[in-house]
């Protein structure tokens, strides 16, 4: 019947069909049977390449250092503002300001007013000036560093890097 299974007895172990039958015909019997690989590699192969950085373009170094120093300047301003607000909420300025005004004051004057000197607008103005100076200096120094690197790489060949790629 078509739906019934027919019992087949095999004379030996089961051999799956070969992907390359021409090789089986060329070989002799058991020598042509493909055997599974038992020592298969379980870790992925890593390709490595050795590269040399022989030149850094000063224009691209200047652009990247400018953007990174602007980001650092913004982070500096935000950090100064947050630190000032936390210290003001803790009452540091009023406590230290009272101590300083008592120490520097006399009967006729009240002494040095720390709270007026370290107000949030004054602190942010000072921090902004420092951030602008930092942007200019960092950009100029990175560009100068690219020129110096190019000169020294001309003598010694540059920096060698080994890059690895996972497969």
Automatic annotation (TrEMBL):
Residue intervals passing through the bilayer: 64-87, 123-149
Basic residues compositional bias, start-end: 34-47
Compositional bias per record (Low complexity), positions renumbered to this chain: 1-13, 20-33
Domain DUF3566, residue spans: 47-165
InterPro entries: DUF3566_TM
UniProt entry keywords in alphabetical sequence: Membrane, Transmembrane, Transmembrane helix
Region described as Disordered: 1-47
Protein known as: Integral membrane protein
Organism: Streptomyces viridochromogenes (strain DSM 40736 / JCM 4977 / BCRC 1201 / Tue 494)
């Amino acid at each position: 019947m078509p739906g019934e299974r027919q019992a087949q007895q095999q004379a030996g172990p089961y051999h799956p069909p070969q992907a390359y039958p021409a090789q089986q015909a060329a070989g002799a019997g058991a020598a042509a049977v493909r055997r599974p690989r038992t020592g298969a590699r379980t870790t992925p192969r890593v390709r490595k390449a050795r590269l040399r950085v022989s030149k850094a373009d000063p224009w691209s170094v200047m652009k990247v250092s400018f953007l990174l120093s602007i980001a650092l300047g913004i982070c500096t301003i935000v950090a100064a503002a947050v630190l000032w607000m936390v210290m003001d909420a803790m009452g540091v300025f009023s406590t230290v300001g009272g101590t300083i005004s008592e120490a520097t004051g006399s009967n006729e004057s009240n002494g040095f007013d720390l709270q007026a000197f370290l107000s949030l607008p004054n602190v942010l103005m000072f921090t902004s000036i420092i951030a602008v100076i930092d942007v200019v200096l960092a950009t100029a120094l990175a560009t100068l560093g690219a020129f110096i690197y190019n000169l020294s790489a001309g003598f010694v060949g540059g920096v060698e890097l080994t890059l690895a790629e996972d497969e």
